[in-house]
Amino acid sequence: MEIKKGIAVSHGISIAKSLIIDSEDYRIPRRPIQPAQRMAETQRIKNAFTAAVRELTQLAEAQDDSTGGKIKDIFAVHLRFLRDKSLIKRITDLVRSELVTAEYAVSSILRDVASHFAKVRDAYISERADDINDIEKRLLKQLLGGKREDLANLTEEVVVVARELSPTQTAGFNREYVKGIASDTGGRTSHAAIVARSLGIPAVVALEDFTEYVRGGDTIIVDGNRGIVIVNPDQDTIAQYEEYSREFLELEHKFDALRDLPAATRDGIKITLLGNIEFPDEAEEVLERGGQGIGLYRTEFLYLNSQTEPTEAEHYEAYAETVSVFKDKPVIIRTMDLGADKFTQSKRFSREPNPFLGLRSIRFCLQNLSLFKTQLHAILRASVLGSVKIMFPLITNIHELKQARLIFRDVMEDLDDEKIPYNRDIEVGIMIETPSAALTAYHLANEVDFFSIGTNDLTQYTLAVDRGNELVSTLYSSADPAVLRLIRTVLQDAHKAQIKTSICGEMASEPEFIMLLLGMGVRTVSIAHPMIPEIKQIIRSVTIEDCNKVARRVLALNSEREISAYLRTAARKILPEAF
Ligand code: PEP
Ligand code: MG
């Protein structure tokens, strides 16, 4: 039995067999084999090469000539490497001479080749290192038996174990069978973690070298409440966790009773509780949990779970489906936040050196006008179906906002020409998720109808800490005084300009922050929908004066540590079950 501690990112407990997927940058531990296993291991290598060639050939054939030319060329390069007999020989020789597993031999030889290419000064040759990394991944997928296709065809419950999970992969999980997630890397607000939470799959990330301890088929307990993962637990531990799991489900059911009760403080201040979604089918869940609308629809997921770029009709259908659930209640559609860790189909192959500071979000849209206009057209068409609002992400200056608004007006004129009805008074808002936007909120407020503070990115960019990097996860905290000061500035400036502000980052979904936010003047939050009942329970248990006191105290403290400790204690008193 092995116990590892990581970061809890999605509540709940699961017990199932492990399925190792993906080998992204996966360092295969050096495990010895017996001399008698040599033949079998070398055969596994040959089979993996044959299967990888077959898989690639099929993928290449499936590419349409008009759009897939570049991709086909890449596949041709990969196929040449995979058919290279001397490469297979180097790998099988290593198994025979060093008595190591097939996975280890594949990984170590291909990494050797890749680092050799990477050192060559010629750009064409050094770029081949990426190809070799891809080939390694493909071969390891074969050897580890964790192909993504397998995930689509699961027939039994599993805990997915991976070194790293992308938002795209996580979005593709079938929650009927994927019961838990454990990954070596990641952070609490990384997009893969956000998706796990939306899907309601218990998850623990930042487990460091966890994948080195696990083999496919090991029994795994994922404790998404305490951030613990246990490999091959003994019977007593399993029994204890089955009990925890029952208690957790009972607590969830207890919260069900809150569904139709108002989200108001004990002294009668009404709070609007909205839900964050990535997929239209989550809208029902927001409603079921008592959400009063959608405060953040992350529309870029339309791109992530499809093999082709969505058409205008597909955008429209997704928005219409979401709006139909809420009718006259607000649905805030955020225009796509592509780039950084989420890519369109055609951009998957070109990487930026520093993508979170690169062509992301509104910047990407402003440079890809046809894609942007397609989305705006669909949002405007859907605007007559209910109370649709539009929101631009990652605004960093007023010029960007004006440009986005100008394009939005152009699209309105297109609809006029086409005689398509839309809501001319549709509310336009922006996300405040960069320090520059927070510091110029006073000016930005004159140009929009509302703000929504994206604390996930605001924290990342204020503290210069990558939100998905477990190596610096202890430095990532929205309780940092710098972040809180920026939030306060935005709230004050919005108040002066008489526009509404909500919080839609994960901070609002965390029980320890809600009193502080209310005390700072927040009256609308948009949260991960599984957390709606818990947050509502806290809201219903406090008075605004309690919250004001918390905010006054916190804003006088000067360190993240003190603030976090204070907030935890305060929230624990109100809702001990949440901790
Ligand atoms: C945020 O940054 O806080 C936010 C809500 O947007 P996302 O998590 O999608 O980046
Ligand atoms: Mg963001």
The bound ligands are: phosphoenolpyruvate, magnesium ion
Q: What is the count of structural domains?
A: 3
Helix and strand composition category: alpha/beta
Amount of helix: 40-55%
User: What characterizes the major β-sheet?
Assistant: 8 strands, mixed
Task: Give the strand order, joined by hyphens, for the main sheet.
Answer: 1-8-7-3-4-5-6-2
CATH homologous superfamily heading of the largest domain: Phosphoenolpyruvate-binding domains
- Looking at the structure, the CATH topology of the largest domain is TIM Barrel
Separation, N- and C-terminal Cα atoms: 25 Å
- CATH hierarchy, class of the largest domain: Alpha Beta
| Poorly predicted residue ranges | none
Quick one: overall form? globular
Radius of gyration: 25 Å
Q: How many strand elements?
A: 16
Structure annotation, total helices: 23
Mean pLDDT: 90
Our estimate of the beta-strand percent is 5-15%
Q: Which architecture of the largest domain does the CATH hierarchy give at level 2?
A: Alpha-Beta Barrel
Write the layout of secondary structure elements.
Layout: E1 2-5, E2 7-10, E3 13-20, H1 38-62, H2 65-82, H3 85-98, H4 102-119, H5 123-144, H6 148-152, E4 158-162, H7 167-171, E5 178-183, H8 191-199, E6 203-205, E7 219-223, E8 228-231, H9 235-256, E9 272-277, H10 283-288, E10 294-298, H11 301-304, H12 312-326, E11 330-334, H13 362-367, H14 369-382, E12 387-392, H15 398-418, E13 428-432, H16 435-439, H17 441-444, E14 450-453, H18 455-463, H19 481-496, E15 500-503, H20 511-519, E16 524-528, H21 532-541, H22 544-556, H23 560-574
Magnesium ion (MG) is lined by residues 393, 433, 454, 456-457.
